[in-house]
User: Fold this.
Amino acid sequence: MRGKVAFTYQLKNYFKQLGWTYLWAFCLIAVLPFVLSVLLGQAHVYSFTDYLPSELTSMVLGLFVFVSGAITYDGFKLFIQNGIGRRTYFKTKVAALGVIILAGEAINLIYGAVFQAWLTPNGPYLMGFSSLYGHYFGNSVADILSVLLITLLFIACVAVTGMVIGGVLGQFSRRGQIIMIVAVPILMIILLFVLVLLNQQSSLKLTWLGNLLLLMVGAQPDLKLGHMIAYAPMISGSIYTIVMLAIAYRLTLRLRIPR
Assistant:
């Protein structure tokens, strides 16, 4: 019973927050430029299609699941104070985010179909990954289903990455979280700079890293775009999601009140 209550509560909150996120994104990206153009007397040159991106809902969904996944401690604190354990909180959060990913992708498909039909009849693929894997099987149904699965896995990878980051931050005090949020990106930039320098030295070429990434996404030198190996991101995405979920689960079990 507590699991059902926790799941319903989180799902309702996620849907409400996602709806507001869509609304704010639409207003900032499409409505605000129109208002500014009216105020500046340039309404006659305003073009709706110039400001409304075809990937609007996809970007919103990706950002939303990442942030929602990363907000770990506050939700944990609320549930633990109401007698709901760590395991139940984690499982219901994963389930609620899973429903949001499915519903969000359905919205992405509807939005993309409407966008193509009304604004860009000769526009890009309905799903972004179709340009990479959309012709791998040579069967329209299989290709659509495979691209849809890859898309869902990609969004899931974004969500579980946020959950792990949130789980790590949840182990620290507010001050520690601020320090990590500032310090980690700086360290990542420095590390990236070092890797670039190493890669420029012929004796230390990081070809193995590039080859590994190409293998994970199913890219091969002799394959054209649209014919990349669809099984590769399915396997690598599934493994990444499972591993990150396991890490997030262990981190959730380590959360304490007070920190």
Remarks:
- The two ends are 28 Å apart (CA to CA).
